[in-house]
Each structure stands twice: as C-alpha cells, then as structure tokens.
Amino acid sequence: MMRIQWFAEMLSERGIQLSERQNEQFHIYFKLLVEWNEKMNLTGITEEEAVYEKHFYDSLSLTFFKDFNQVKSIADIGSGAGFPSLPIKIAFPHLKVTIVDSLNKRILFLKHVVEQLGLTEVSCIHGRAEDVARQADHRDKYDLVTARAVARLASLNELCLPFTKKGGYFASMKGASPQDEVDESVKSLKELRGQVEAVFNMALPFEQSERHIVMIKKLEPTPKKYPRKAGTPIKEPIV
Ligand code: SAM
C-alpha cells in the first residue's frame, strides 16, 4: 500500500528502502493520527501530504545525518504524537526506543499506535523527563536522544543530556534559525557535559521551510545535581 509515492522515492534517494509493510505502517500511523486527533489534541497538521512531509519526512531527516545502522538505543523526550522517534523506528526496526512524555493521553495514543503497527521494543513512559532521568535504567544510557519542538536548547540540554550515555549524542531538531539558542546554551552545555559537534541543515522538500539539527556529544556522565526538580529546567534555564 503506497499512497504517497514521493515519500518512498525521496527516502530511497537517501538510501532508505521502505518495504511494502513499512509503507503500510506509515499509512496506518497517518490514519490513527487523524482519527485520534478528533478526540484529543495531537497535531495541527492533518492533511495527508502535509503529515508525510512535516511529520514523517521531517522526523526521518535526522537519519540523513547520522548512520542509524550503528545506533542501538534511542530516547525521544517530549515525543507528543511520536515525533521524531516513531517514523525512525518504522524505518529502522532494529532500534530499541524509549519515549518519554508528561501527558498521559499522548502516551495512551502512542501505545495504541505501537500495538497497531506491530512494533516491538518500544517503551512509552508517562512522566517528566526530569524524574525519569533520575532512574538508573535511563540515566546515562542511550546512544542517541532526540527532542523536536519541546523547549529552547538551554532547557533541553538539562532534559535530554542526562539520558545520553558518555560518547553518545543528543540531537536537537530545530527550525529555521537555531544560532541564538546555541549561543544561549554555552553554560548549560558545560554543566550537562555536552559539546556541539555539528549543526546540520536541510529544507522540507515541498514547503521548503528550513530545519536544523544540533548534534551534541555527551562527554562525561551526568553530574549528580542534574536534572533539577521537574519544571525548573524550563522555568529557570541554565543561561
Ligand atoms: N516532539 C513532538 C513533535 O515534534 O511533534 C511533540 C512536541 S509537543 C509541542 C511537546 C511535547 O513535550 C508535549 O507532548 C509535552 O507533553 C511534552 N513535554 C513537555 N515538557 C516535558 C517534560 N519535562 N518531560 C516530558 N515531556 C514533556
């Protein structure tokens, strides 16, 4: 079932060959997103082509800049309706995925999607990142941590770097101009033991709006005092 031809073709140009089953999984995901969106607020984007471009393709753009065949585990902080982690999991089924979101309604949606798509090794956790990152199972554990549209980078460093293992990466997915956020995050990077390694950019294929991915390397384990208590990283960012 391939409804959106350009999607599979453009991914194929990037070296990602989707099987019929994977194309079907994207289609079911789209249908569930629109269906559940009528009952709860998941996304402002519901037109099929737009969902494929602004949610699915945008989420997968991270995989254009990092070799996901070398990545084993990812954590997606503030995943909302599953972005970017679920499109990445569909395209790279070997991944072990942990999703953390503080809104239980969204977690219930995500668990339903995971079940309907038949995805394995996806764990959807209801909780604040600040609390979950204190648990030994999740602290300094993940090869790659992602966050899209959750907070400014100075706050995200404190929410996401505690999940990232030493030598792993936090990929912050940003819009048109992240430079001011990068400039603002010098102190939080130092405190959370992160270092900006690269800033990648790309444009969405049709809408053409610009996107950036700030790739941050975790240099050392997380100092004991971080993250601070839930709510503080966003209310009082380390700047
Ligand atoms: N990443 C998704 C996307 O790109 O479409 C969702 C973005 S949505 C604007 C932000 C999400 O982050 C919400 O689902 C919210 O519940 C979650 N969130 C905000 N603060 C959080 C925290 N401290 N811990 C976990 N989730 C959080």
Automatic annotation (TrEMBL):
The keyword rRNA processing applies. One of its GO terms (molecular function) is rRNA (guanine-N7-)-methyltransferase activity. Its EC number is 2.1.1.-. Keywords: Cytoplasm, Methyltransferase, rRNA processing, S-adenosyl-L-methionine, Transferase. InterPro entries: rRNA_ssu_MeTfrase_G (IPR003682), SAM-dependent_MTases_sf (IPR029063). Gene3D superfamilies: Vaccinia Virus protein VP39 (3.40.50.150). S-adenosyl-L-methionine binds at G78, F83, A129, E130, R148. One of its GO terms (cellular component) is cytosol. Its main location: cytoplasm. It comes from the Bacteria. HAMAP family: 16SrRNA_methyltr_G. PANTHER family: S-ADENOSYL-L-METHIONINE-DEPENDENT METHYLTRANSFERASES SUPERFAMILY PROTEIN (PTHR31760:SF0). This is Ribosomal RNA small subunit methyltransferase G. It comes from Paenibacillus roseus.
